[in-house]
Amino acid sequence: MSADEIKKELASILRAVRIRIEIEKGFGIDTITVSRPNKLNVQRSSNLLAEKQSMKTPDIDGRKRQTEGTNKRSSKDATKPLSDQTSVTEKGEGVQMLETLRNEMLVCHKCSLGKARTNLVFGVGNPRATLMFVGEAPGRDEDLQGEPFVGRAGQLLTKIIEAIGLKRNDVYIANVLKCRPPGNRAPLPEEIVLCMPYLLKQIEIIQPKVLCALGTFAAQTLLSTKAPVGTLRGRFHDYKGIPIMVTFHPAYLLRNPNDKAKVWEDMKKVRDLLSELSGKDLKI
Ligand code: URA
């Protein structure tokens, strides 16, 4: 190799490393693990460590923005029909079926949560998404806006989605419960049992290539297990023939930012599997 070729090669490696650092920074990873040939793992804090984690500011601002923005839309079940939502990128049969399901759920009072909600939080995104995320239950912001993951945890989820080269509108996002439990308490087993058929129907309509369960409730519900998320995460399981990655819930990550690196590892596996399945390289 000539000196010029070596220079070019090094420049291209540097470019790739820079892009990767940018992505990891965007995701909130501020530490890079460097493997050495002598098998010593050196934990190096990059310059990014000194900076504020880039997702902190949007989280806080995002919450403020949403609170301001929601006042106009907080009347009971006042969200637009699914087909009018800008986040639904593709029309067709899937939309029709989701719309029918949504209408069914609008009049659902199988449990007491239906009476207390401001809005039904049905789900949002591409009805033909290849990747579908499943969370736990709507919180206050979601109840006010009628859309899943729009609060602080939602801001983080959006960053996670973008970190694997997708946009929020590319994927589909739903929860185990469609109505907010009062005071953001954990879903009760009977609420999960009553609401679960709606989630299963959503998955059946969307037919994602890959599922991602965010946190304990989604993982345990879809995998019919009582195993804790810590032991389930990091690998693909099977949900009726669909590979399902289990990872930590974004709200957990807000309280335990050190575990963001684990979620990044999980999401890289999701990204790689999606690339493999679609034959389309989602990597940078
Ligand atoms: N947490 C969830 O599990 N779902 C939401 O929609 C918001 C927060």
Write a structural description.
By secondary structure, this protein is α/β, with parallel strands linked by helices. It has one domain: Uracil-DNA glycosylase-like domain (Uracil-DNA Glycosylase, subunit E, 3-Layer(aba) Sandwich), CATH 3.40.470.10. It is built from eleven helices and eight strands. It has helices at residues 3-26, 56-70, 93-106, 113-116, 140-145, 152-163, 189-206, 216-223, 229-232, 250-255, 260-278, and strands at 31-35, 41-45, 124-125, 131-135, 172-175, 210-214, 236-239, 242-247. The chain has a six-stranded mixed β-sheet, sandwiched between helices. Strand 1 and strand 2 form a beta hairpin. Helix 2 (56-70) crosses helix 6 (152-163) and helix 3 (93-106) packs antiparallel against helix 7. The longest helix has 24 residues, at 3-26. The protein is elongated. Residues 135-139, 142, 148-149, 151, 153-154, 175, 251 line the site of uracil.
Structure, briefly:
46% of the residues lie in helices and 13% in strands. By secondary structure, it is an alpha/beta fold.
Question: What labels describe this entry?
Answer:
284 residues, alpha/beta, Uracil-DNA Glycosylase, subunit E, six-stranded mixed beta sheet, two-stranded antiparallel sheet, 11 helices, 46% helix, 13% strand, binds uracil
